[in-house]
């Protein structure tokens, strides 16, 4: 295959042009290219005559045509080229044009010297160019130089060989009961288990442009293994191994392994328990005892009027009867068969089959389902969702459910409001004294040292209270914004909600007047609205 091309005929009697037709499926001569070439050399021509010659070349038996461009004497023209460089400076190609009929050819060395003059000195296609100068092919793009693209590397990564997402929830059995025994909220590990492996990053290789410029690969992410006690790391710092039997967790990209303290019951035989790891209680937790753990607390029996406090999850297989003094406090989730006469707070969700006369607060959601699935009496609060089968009581027990911002936000907001009021009262009581004293000083009245000291203390106290009030107002503004943004929170009742129940969403509330079934309560247009499920 050979493209069509053209060649000048120069002499004293004028200038002509030969046009050659393509061979074996090549591309015909581009007349725009011919015109650009003639213009570049200042050769006068007739466009109509030129186009006619191009057509004659295509139909000529010998595949060529000749035309006289003008009668102006002209000098012979050497073989020449047009160089094209890609925008990313990675490729250069040349389009060669033949010399005039009696003109000189360019040598390969001349061309290489020309490239060097243009600072193109990397990736020169020497073999292809040498072949071209041996057997020229005109009016065709010839690859001249090719840069080397950078080889981009890979980010370092860590592969964990345990469950890192411990947000599993209890499953609902076919009979409607909730399975509290298979929660999958703890990742167990054995001594010698590989917990994590670091795969180092590959930085890649630099590339080079045709101008021999260094092109760096993209920056890669570098990571390292972070770990706590009961874990060993290999000499190359790429493998973490557990040193004990226990539970493994991932907190802020740091691997922790904690031992488990296992007891039968928490009673007089054990006393109060405070432990850095997880605590497993095979039996019950008796009244007036406390269990505090840095990890999870798992109770296979019943918790009576006791205090359970865990940085992780609290799981109570047979429920909690707080006797009006029991407290559950979890940084993670609380899962219990039932919650009765208790105070419960969870940083995550709360899941149970029933809540009776209790104060329950959850950072995310509260789910009350299973065979019973009721909330009766007390106050139940969650940030995003409260889902319950039966809400309230036909006997009219005071039941309040709240969703919206973190339940602690409202309490903090109320505290700040109280603080602002108290500070304002104090400032208002101090101000007249300060004004009177300042007036005396301006009139030249001399004060006793103890009076001056008292004045200075009052002045400092006013300044401090004003600053406290300013900080409180600023914090209140942020908390109020949180409340405003909690409009998507909702309460879902999959069974029946009884009259007299109070529903609060963010900063608005309503009291249910008549019993309703299968409904959802949302905040809409500044009020609590009931819509069907």
Rounded to the nearest angstrom, the distance between the terminal CA atoms is: 73 Å
What would the principal axes of the Cα set say about the shape?
elongated
Percent in strands: 35-45%
Query: Please, what is the average pLDDT?
Result: 88
Structure described in brief:
The protein has 6 helices and 41 strands. With 533 residues, it is of the alpha/beta class. It has a 21-stranded mixed β-sheet that branches. A 4-stranded antiparallel β-sheet has the order 8-12-18-17, with no helix packed on it. Strands 11-19-20-16 form a 4-stranded mixed β-sheet, with no helix packed on it.
Chain-wise SSE layout:
Layout: E1 5-11, E2 14-20, H1 31-40, H2 47-59, E3 64-70, E4 80-85, E5 91-97, H3 108-117, H4 126-134, E6 141-146, E7 151-154, E8 157-160, E9 171-172, E10 178-179, E11 188-189, E12 194-199, E13 202-205, E14 207-208, E15 214-215, E16 226-227, E17 231-233, E18 239-242, E19 246-251, E20 254-258, E21 260-263, E22 273-275, E23 278-281, E24 290-293, E25 297-299, E26 307-310, E27 314-316, E28 320-330, E29 334-336, E30 339-346, E31 350-352, E32 354-362, E33 365-368, E34 374-382, E35 385-391, E36 399-403, H5 407-442, H6 449-484, E37 490-497, E38 502-505, E39 508-511, E40 516-524, E41 527-532
Parallel strand pairs: 16-20, 21-23, 22-24, 23-25, 24-26, 25-27, 26-28, 27-29, 28-30, 29-31, 30-32, 31-33, 32-34, 33-35, 34-35, 34-36, 35-37, 36-38
Antiparallel strand pairs: 1-2, 2-3, 4-5, 5-6, 7-13, 8-12, 9-10, 11-19, 12-18, 14-15, 17-18, 19-20, 37-40, 38-39, 40-41
């Amino acid at each position: 295959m050979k493209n069509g091309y053209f060649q000048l005929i120069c002499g004293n009697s004028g200038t002509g042009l030969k046009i050659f037709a393509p061979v074996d499926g090549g591309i015909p001569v581009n007349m725009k290219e011919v015109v650009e070439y003639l213009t570049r050399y200042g050769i006068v021509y007739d466009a109509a005559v030129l186009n006619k010659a191009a057509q004659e070349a295509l139909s000529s038996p010998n595949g060529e045509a000749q035309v006289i461009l003008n009668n102006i004497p002209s000098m012979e023209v050497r073989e020449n080229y047009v160089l094209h460089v890609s925008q990313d400076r990675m490729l250069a190609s040349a389009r060669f044009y033949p010399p005039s009929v009696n003109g000189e050819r360019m040598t390969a060395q001349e061309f290489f010297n020309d490239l060097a003059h243009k600072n193109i000195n990397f990736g020169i296609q020497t073999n292809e160019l040498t072949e071209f100068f041996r057997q020229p092919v005109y009016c065709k793009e010839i690859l001249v130089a090719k840069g080397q693209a950078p080889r981009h590397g890979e980010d370092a990564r860590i592969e964990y060989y345990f469950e890192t997402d411990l947000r599993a929830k209890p499953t609902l059995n076919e009979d409607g009961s909730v399975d509290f025994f298979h929660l999958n909220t703890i990742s167990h590990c054995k001594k010698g288990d590989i917990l994590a492996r670091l795969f180092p990053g590959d930085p890649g290789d630099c590339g080079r442009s045709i101008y021999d410029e260094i092109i760096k690969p993209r920056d890669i992410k570098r990571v390292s293994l972070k770990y706590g006690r009961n874990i060993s790391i290999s000499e190359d710092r790429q493998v973490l191994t557990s040193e004990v039997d226990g539970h493994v967790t991932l907190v802020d990209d740091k691997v922790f392994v904690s031992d488990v303290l296992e007891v039968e019951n928490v009673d007089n035989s054990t006393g109060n328990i405070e432990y850095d790891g997880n605590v497993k209680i095979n039996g019950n937790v008796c009244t007036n005892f406390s269990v505090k753990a840095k990890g999870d607390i798992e109770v296979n029996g019943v918790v009576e009027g006791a205090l359970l406090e865990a940085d992780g999850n609290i799981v109570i297989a047979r429920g909690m009867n707080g006797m009006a003094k029991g407290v559950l406090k979890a940084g993670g989730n609380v899962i219990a068969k039932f919650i009765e006469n208790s105070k419960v707070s969870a940083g995550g969700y709360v899941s149970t089959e029933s809540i009776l006369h209790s104060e329950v607060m959850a950072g995310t959601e509260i789910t009350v389902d299973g065979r019973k699935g009721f909330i009766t009496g007390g106050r139940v609060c969650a940030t995003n969702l409260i889902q319950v089968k039966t809400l309230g009581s036909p006997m009219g027990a005071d039941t309040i459910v709240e969703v919206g911002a973190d339940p602690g936000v409202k309490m903090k907001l109320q505290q700040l409001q109280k603080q602002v009021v108290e500070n304002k009262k104090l400032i208002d009581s101090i101000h007249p004294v300060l004004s009177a004293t300042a007036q005396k000083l301006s009139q030249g009245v001399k004060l006793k040292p103890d009076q001056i000291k008292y004045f200075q203390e009052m002045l400092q106290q006013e300044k401090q209270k004003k600053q406290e009030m300013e900080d409180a107002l600023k914090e209140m503004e942020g908390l109020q914004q949180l409340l405003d943004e909690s409009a998507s929170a909702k309460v879902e009742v999959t069974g029946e909600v009884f009259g007299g129940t109070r529903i609060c969403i963010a900063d608005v509330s309503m009291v249910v007047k008549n019993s309703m079934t299968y409904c959802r309560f949302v905040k809409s247009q500044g009020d609590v609205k009931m819509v069907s499920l």
